[in-house]
Write a structure and sequence with these properties.
This protein is mainly α and 202 residues long. The chain has eight helices and three strands; from the N terminus they run αβααββααααα. The chain has two domains: 83 residues, Winged helix-like DNA-binding domain superfamily/Winged helix DNA-binding domain (Arc Repressor Mutant, subunit A, Orthogonal Bundle); 107 residues. 64% of the residues lie in helices and 9% in strands. Strand 2 and strand 3 form a beta hairpin. The longest helix has 41 residues. The N and C termini lie far apart (45 Å).
Length: 202
């Protein structure tokens, strides 16, 4: 997935300023697609240059102005083209599993701390995603409501169901990561209880 398609997909809900898009990608959506501020604004300019979005310059106060971006027909066609293409799987670079594979070079304290942090991170993520699923069920997500307002009622079920499918994937992933960290902590307790030495303890 490219930054461009993430922005185009978001703009199908409603026109937004660059600032509003930054806030959206800083929020709960960051778990799915992280986008630094330094990437969003340049990509919006490129999308404007390539004719994928329309831009309305709106006065803000006496001297300032803001640029409001909206997806156009060319942008929608590009998003649909991307959706039809298979997504290639990329080679994994997982520092958490890499580090765990070599915990014998650490201390029990350091290894335990790493897994506890992993557990805490995904416990927070799990709470966020379960709340998002509840909000989707209740249609409390403002961007979802705006999207539904623009689409015929017969499309609403699919729109909500596909968003729940995506976030359900995040819930399952978080639960798996929590289970993995708990298994690792139990293993550390077992090995330490047996007096198995680690090189990092020397």
């Amino acid at each position: 997935m490219s930054q461009r398609h993430a922005l185009l997909a978001t703009l199908t809900a409603q026109p937004m300023t660059g600032y509003e898009l930054v806030k959206y990608f800083d929020g709960s959506f960051a778990y799915v697609w992280s986008a630094p501020h330094s990437q969003i604004y340049p990509e919006l300019r490129r999308m404007e240059r390539d004719g994928l979005v329309g831009v309305e310059v709106v006065p803000r106060g006496e001297r300032a102005e803001k640029r409001v971006y909206s997806i156009n027909e060319a942008g929608l066609a590009e998003l649909q083209r991307w959706e039809r293409e298979p997504t290639p799987y990329q080679s994994e670079r997982d520092p958490y599993r890499l580090k765990a594979a070599h915990f014998e070079q650490a201390t029990y304290e350091a290894a335990r701390h790493q897994l506890q942090e992993h557990l805490r991170h995904f416990a927070r993520a799990l709470r966020d995603w379960e709340q998002m699923l509840a909000d989707l069920d209740a249609r409390r997500v403002s961007l979802l409501r705006r999207r539904l307002e623009q689409r015929p009622e017969e499309e609403h079920e699919a729109i909500v169901a596909f968003r729940k499918l995506a976030f359900r994937g995040e819930v399952l992933k978080a639960r798996a990561e929590i289970a993995w960290a708990e298994e690792g902590l139990a293993l550390l307790d077992e090995l330490e209880g047996k007096g198995v030495p680690l090189r990092g303890e020397r």
